[in-house]
Amino acid sequence: VSFGYENVSPEEKTRRVGEVFSSVAKKYDIMNDAMSFGMHRGWKDRFVKRVKPQAGENILDMAGGTGDIAFRMADRGANITVADINQEMLDVGAERAIERDEAEGAGSLVFSQQNAEEVSFASNSFDAYTIVFGIRNVTHKEKALKEALRVLRPGGRFYCMEFSVTDWSGFREIYDLYSMHIMPRMGQVIAGDTESYRYLAESIRKFPRAPQFEAMIRDAGFVNTKAEIILGGAVAIHSGWKV
Ligand code: SAM
C-alpha cells in the first residue's frame, strides 16, 4: 500500500482505504488492544451506554468492522445490521459472532457489505445509526452523514465516535510522537505492515476537531447535536437526532 493520498482521486482514496483494512483485518483486534493500551474497550462501553440500545430496536452499525460495537448492542437485545465496505473485516466479525457467548435475550446480527456514502437500505428504516472510528476513513463524509439521516426513521438517533487531535498541550506532543513513530513500528512488529498504520495515524491528525465535525453533523440536517469530549478531544462522541 502506498500513500500521499491527498493527491489522488476520491475513487483511488476509497480503494486504498480498502487495501488498508484488507491488510489489517486479521490482526485488527489485537492491534486495537496494543495501540490503545486496551483503552478502546472502555471508550466502546461508554459509547454504547450513551446510545442506550433497547430490546427490539433496529440499529445500523456502519463501518462496524469486526463487530465490537455491534456485539455490545446486541447483548442489550437490539437487532443489529453490521455494515462495512470491507468484506474481510466483516468476515472476521462473522467468525467472532459464531464463537461469542451471547447474553441472554441477545438481539440478532446481520452482516452486510455497504459503502457509507451510498447505503442500499430503505429510507426511515432504523431506530439508531452508529459509526465508530469509521467516518474518518470515508472519502465523502458529508455524503455519509446525509445517508445516515436518510436511513433513520423520524425520531431516530445518530451516534458517532471518532479520534481527532487533542487540545491538551503536552499530551498532544506525546501523542504525535507516539502516533507518527511508534504506531507504524508496532504495525510492523505485530502485523508486518508499517504503511497501513502510518495511514491510520495520519487520518486521525487530519480529522476535524469536535466543534467542526459537530457543525458538519448539523449541516447534514441533524438536530440537538452534542459532542462529548474525551482526553481533550483525542476521542469524541457525537450525537444528533432526526426530526
Ligand atoms: N467500528 C469498528 C470498531 O470500532 O472496532 C471498526 C473500526 S475500523 C478502524 C474502520 C472501519 O471502517 C473498517 O472496517 C473499514 O473497512 C470501514 N470503512 C472505511 N470506509 C468505509 C466506507 N466508505 N463505508 C463503510 N465502511 C467503511
UniProtKB/TrEMBL annotation:
<dbReference type="InterPro" id="IPR023576">
    <property type="entry name" value="UbiE/COQ5_MeTrFase_CS"/>
</dbReference>
<dbReference type="GO" id="GO:0009060">
    <property type="term" value="P:aerobic respiration"/>
</dbReference>
<keyword id="KW-0808">Transferase</keyword>
<dbReference type="InterPro" id="IPR004033">
    <property type="entry name" value="UbiE/COQ5_MeTrFase"/>
</dbReference>
<comment type="pathway">
    <text>Cofactor biosynthesis; ubiquinone biosynthesis.</text>
</comment>
<keyword id="KW-0831">Ubiquinone biosynthesis</keyword>
<dbReference type="GO" id="GO:0043770">
    <property type="term" value="F:demethylmenaquinone methyltransferase activity"/>
</dbReference>
<dbReference type="InterPro" id="IPR029063">
    <property type="entry name" value="SAM-dependent_MTases_sf"/>
</dbReference>
<comment type="similarity">
    <text>Belongs to the class I-like SAM-binding methyltransferase superfamily. MenG/UbiE family.</text>
</comment>
<keyword id="KW-0474">Menaquinone biosynthesis</keyword>
<comment type="pathway">
    <text>Quinol/quinone metabolism; menaquinone biosynthesis; menaquinol from 1,4-dihydroxy-2-naphthoate: step 2/2.</text>
</comment>
<feature type="binding site">
    <location>
        <begin position="115"/>
        <end position="116"/>
    </location>
    <ligand>
        <name>S-adenosyl-L-methionine</name>
    </ligand>
</feature>
<keyword id="KW-0949">S-adenosyl-L-methionine</keyword>
<feature type="binding site">
    <location>
        <position position="66"/>
    </location>
    <ligand>
        <name>S-adenosyl-L-methionine</name>
    </ligand>
</feature>
<keyword id="KW-0830">Ubiquinone</keyword>
<dbReference type="GO" id="GO:0032259">
    <property type="term" value="P:methylation"/>
</dbReference>
<dbReference type="Pfam" id="PF01209">
    <property type="entry name" value="Ubie_methyltran"/>
</dbReference>
<comment type="function">
    <text>Methyltransferase required for the conversion of demethylmenaquinol (DMKH2) to menaquinol (MKH2) and the conversion of 2-polyprenyl-6-methoxy-1,4-benzoquinol (DDMQH2) to 2-polyprenyl-3-methyl-6-methoxy-1,4-benzoquinol (DMQH2).</text>
</comment>
<protein>
    <recommendedName>
        <fullName>Ubiquinone/menaquinone biosynthesis C-methyltransferase UbiE</fullName>
        <ecNumber>2.1.1.163</ecNumber>
        <ecNumber>2.1.1.201</ecNumber>
    </recommendedName>
</protein>
<keyword id="KW-0489">Methyltransferase</keyword>
<dbReference type="GO" id="GO:0009234">
    <property type="term" value="P:menaquinone biosynthetic process"/>
</dbReference>
<feature type="binding site">
    <location>
        <position position="84"/>
    </location>
    <ligand>
        <name>S-adenosyl-L-methionine</name>
    </ligand>
</feature>
<dbReference type="GO" id="GO:0008425">
    <property type="term" value="F:2-methoxy-6-polyprenyl-1,4-benzoquinol methyltransferase activity"/>
</dbReference>
